[in-house]
Amino acid sequence: MKFVIICPAAKEFRVVGRKKASSRMKIFRFSMLSAIQVAASAPQDVEVEIIDENVEPINFNLDAEIIGISFMTFNAPRAYEIATKFRAKGKVVIFGGYHPTLMPEEASKYCDAVCIGDAESNIGKIFKDYKNGKLKKIYAYPYKEFRRLNSKKNLIKNSKYFTTSVIQATRGCCNKCEFCSISAFYKQSYKKKPIEEVIEEIKTIKRKQILFIDDNLVMDVNYAKRLFEKMIPLNKNWYSQIEVNVTRDNELLDLMKKSGCRGVFVGFESLSQDSLNNTGKNFNKSSFYKEAVKKFHERGIGVLGAFVLGFDHDKIDIFNKTLNFLKEARIDALQLTVLTPFPGTPLFKKMDKEKRIFDKNWENYDLSNVVMKPANMTAEELSRDYKRILGEFYSWSRIISRSLKQFLYLHPTEILYFFLVSYGYRYKLKKRGYI
C-alpha cells in the first residue's frame, strides 16, 4: 500500500507544470517536520511519499491508494480542489492539519476521513480501519504522550529547504489568546518530549545550527532550564519561538546563551496594552518590550518580532507607533500580520456573531488580507498602513542600516541570516505588489 502526503501551497508560490521553486523564498522553507512525523506514524508496511507544492508539482496520476492532505485555512480551497481531483480517480483522501481540525464538518464534505488534532494517535487507526473496510469519517483520538519517532527525513528534497536540521521538544500552548489557532488546535494543552530523547535527537543532527519549531519552547520554565543545561556540551547554535517574558528570568536567559541560542521569534503582537489585555495576552507588557529586546541583544541573540494590526483597541496612531518602535528597539526582522479571525477560534465566533466578517473566502485568510471590519479604523486604512509599515521596514535603506548596527551585538552568521530574511521578505512584498 502506498500513502502520499501532500502539502498545498499559496497560489503565488505554488510549483505547477515546469515552473521551478523560487530560490528567493528558500529562506522561509524549513524541513517538513509535521509531514515527516505523519509519515513516521504510518504502519511499517506502508510506502510513504511526501509532496510539497512549494517545491514540486503534484502528479495527479501517481499510483497511491491513499492521499493525505494537511493544510491551514488559507490553503483550504486548494486542498479541496486537490482532493476532488484525486477522489474522481478513485483515491481515498484523508485530511489533517489546522483547518480540518477546526472546521471538520466543512472539510469532511471533500474527503473520506478527517484526522482531528495530532496525527500520531490517529494514523495507525485510520489505516487499520481502511484495511478492514471500516473507515470512519472522523478520527479524534488524543495524543497523550509526546515521544520521539523514527526519522523519515529522507522523504523530502533537502536541497529545496533552507534547513532540514529541525527538531521539536514541546508542542502546543496553554495560553488562551483569542486570535490564536494554535491555542484552539491544541485546546490550550502543552506536551513535552522527554529531555533525554530531545538530546539524543539533537546528537543525530550533523549541522551546528538547529531550529526548534516549538510553539513556545519556554512555557515550562523548569523544563526549559533542564533542557538548556543538557544542551551546553553539544556546542550547537539554535533558534526557536518563545514568549517575551523569558527576559524577566536572567538565569533562563543566560542558559539560553550558554546553550547556543542565536535567534528568537517573539510574539509581541501589539504596542497597545489595551489590545493585549482585551485579546487574552495580558501577560505581555508592552512597556517592557524595549528592555526585553535589549536583554536579548546583550546576549548576542537576534529578534524576529511578530506584530498584529487591527485589534479592537488599536487606533489610527498604532501604525506610526509600531514603525517607530521597530527602529528604536532595533528589531532585527519583522513578521507583520493583519488580525485574522481564523475559523474555530474565539475571535472568529465573536466577530461572526457581531457580523463583522465580510469575507469568508478562505484563500484570503493568509494574514495579509483584511477580512473583517476593524473597530477604530476602516478596512482600507488597515490594509494601506499594514503595507506601508512592511514597505518601510524592508526598504533597502533600513535593511542596510539594521545590518550595520547588528555588528555591535550579533555574530556575522546571524547578520547574514537576518539579511537573507529581509531579502526574502522584499521578494514576497514585490510579488504581492506592496512595494
* Terminal CA distance: 48 Å
Total domain count? 2
- CATH hierarchy, class of the largest domain: Alpha Beta
How is the biggest beta sheet arranged? 6 strands, parallel
The largest sheet has its strands arranged as 2-1-3-4-5-6
Q: What structural category do the secondary elements indicate?
A: alpha/beta
- Per CATH, the architecture of the largest domain is Alpha-Beta Horseshoe
CATH superfamily of the largest domain: tm_1862 like domain
* Broad shape: globular
Radius of gyration: 21 Å
In the predicted model, the low-confidence regions spanning at least 5 consecutive residues are none
Work out the helix count.
16
Secondary-structure element pattern, one letter each? EHEEHEHHEHEEEHEHEHEHEHHEHEHHHH
Mean pLDDT: 95
CATH topology of the largest domain: pyruvate-formate lyase- activating enzyme
Helix content: 25-40%
List keywords for this structure.
435 residues, Rossmann fold, pyruvate-formate lyase- activating enzyme, 2 domains, six-stranded parallel β-sheet
